[in-house]
Write a structure and sequence with these properties.
Length: 502
């Protein structure tokens, strides 16, 4: 007796019963319809002017960017996979209007339209603000690393580049000399061979030398910009595949990456500012972040909060030049020791020393003054106490790390007054309450982006990767707008979006 399995629906075998419009098979509430309404809000008129009337008709830029944004929101980043989904997945087919370009057109468009992607991001922010989803009341800035489209195996140090350049030049010289003797030695040297093997080898080595020189010049240019006038460390590396990428990482896990910076609005986690950095840390990122927020929105937020990675003289100086009410985590999580000092073995750190702006000195917990000993050209300062006083101090073992009996030193820069102001500000209860919200504003956004699947770039070079990062941030913002529609905060009627009155 046969088992009564479920039968296929009659529609499967009688195709004529299918709807005349295949998109009727999608549920009425499918999100692709909402995405389509949102994409219609994008202004592509400026981009359209870049196309020529000569030749074959081009795909409309709104169509291509809609396909890319929707694909990124669904975790599909490969141009080949995007084309495949547009031919197999009904929702992708709907977004592509059953007119998807092939993977090469998609790939080239992603590489060649960096400014357009930046503009799409700006439009997504302004649309969110218009719909009441972002108010710039409290914005949090943070950074995260994203893998470059290269690897450590496609890289070489400066020392090795110099050695390899000399080695290849010598080999090429030898091959050229050998080739010059080719005519007279041909029969004896090659016998039955054609004699073409040597030029092929020469061509390969010349191409290799050109790549070595290009990478070496790019590395030297980079190091001159970072450390003008200084000799290049032989261990400094550069990638052949993406010379703009930098080695970044921690805990022994290093790779070629970019530092993605996002400024997120508190209301609905809309990204209101973003930029891609080549710096491994965040010590110089506030100035470009603030400029990008102003460029994107036309104004600055009321409050800005950042973690301790941004606690640097350059960042504090950038904040001081604006009217921003900023909150920067201080002291790297170090806790102050109680005064008078208790009996614990906790080390005395810089936070335990009081900076005196009037006479430009520090005072240790025991009352000794650490006076200014030296100032470098780049503004770095060194303060030091008295060896006699330090050697007789009962807390010496908790304070000075010197094995030669030298007095305790404090190293800082000429921005210490700004640090003192921020330290004092962050000690207040109001500041602590405001800063406490930072991690629930910005940190989940990076989690949402990476959980979607985006962890590395598909393009190479700083300009192109910055364009792709704008695309990622645009996809995030449009997902947030789409969710606001589903929640009933925003409505879509006749292709127009508008906020629903409370």
């Amino acid at each position: 007796m046969s088992i009564p399995f479920k039968k296929n629906p009659i529609e499967f075998n009688q195709r004529q019963l299918f709807p005349s419009n295949i998109f009727d098979l999608l549920p009425d509430e499918h999100e692709c319809y909402l995405y389509k309404d949102i994409f219609q809000q994008l202004d592509t008129s400026h981009q359209e002017k870049t196309f020529s009337r000569i030749g074959q008709n081009a795909y409309h830029p709104r169509l291509i960017v809609s396909i890319l944004i929707y694909s990124y929101s669904q975790g599909v980043f490969s141009s080949r996979q995007i084309e495949r989904r547009c031919n197999e997945d009904l929702s992708f087919m709907y977004i592509a209007e059953m007119n998807c370009p092939n993977y090469r057109v998609l790939s080239d468009f992603r590489k060649d339209n960096v400014d357009f992607f930046h503009d799409c991001f700006r439009q997504s922010v302004l649309l969110a603000m218009e719909l009441g989803l972002a108010s710039l009341g409290h914005v949090s800035l943070d950074g995260s690393k994203f893998k470059a489209s290269t690897s450590k195996h496609k890289a070489m140090s400066h020392r090795r580049l110099v050695e390899k350049e000399k080695e290849l030049m010598n080999e090429i010289d030898a091959l050229i000399q050998k080739a010059n003797k080719c005519d007279e030695d041909e029969d004896k040297e090659y016998k039955e061979k054609t004699g073409y093997e040597l030029p092929e080898d020469l061509k390969f080595k010349e191409e290799r030398l050109a790549k070595i020189k290009m990478a070496k010049e790019a590395l030297e240019k980079r190091e001159e910009e970072l450390n003008p006038g200084k000799k290049i460390d032989g261990k400094k590396q550069i990638s052949f595949a993406d010379t703009d990428a930098r080695i970044m990482g921690k805990n022994g896990n290093f790779a070629y990456q970019y530092n993605g910076q996002i400024s997120v609005d508190k209301d609905n986690q809309i990204i209101v500012g973003q930029h891609l950095s080549q710096n491994a840390n965040d010590k110089k990122e506030i100035d470009p972040a603030v400029k990008d927020i102003r460029k994107t929105t036309g104004k600055l937020p009321s409050k800005l909060s950042v973690d301790n990675g941004y606690m640097s003289g350059d960042n504090l100086e950038a904040l001081a030049s604006t009217d921003l009410d900023a909150y920067v985590a201080t002291n790297k999580g170090e806790k102050k020791n109680k005064i008078p000092l208790d009996e614990s073995n906790r080390k005395l750190t810089k936070v335990d020393f009081v900076y005196n702006e009037q006479d430009d000195s520090f005072t240790c917990p025991c009352g000794q003054a650490l006076i200014l000993k030296s100032t470098s050209k780049d503004g770095k300062k060194k303060y030091q106490g008295s060896s006699d006083i330090c050697s007789g101090c009962e807390y010496k073992n908790r304070c000075s790390k010197s094995t030669k009996g030298q007095a305790r030193t404090i190293n800082t820069d000429d921005k210490e007054p700004l640090r003192k102001q921020m330290n004092e500000k962050m000690e207040t209860e109001v500041a602590k309450e405001i800063y406490k919200k930072r991690k629930v504003i910005v940190e989940p956004v990076f989690g949402q982006i990476k959980n979607t699947g985006f962890r590395g770039f598909s393009v190479r070079g700083y300009g192109k990767t910055s364009g792709e990062f704008s695309l990622v941030c645009t996809a995030h913002n449009i997902k947030k707008i789409m969710k606001a529609i589903l929640k009933g905060v925003v409505r879509s009627e006749f292709g127009k979006l508008e906020p629903i009155p409370a």
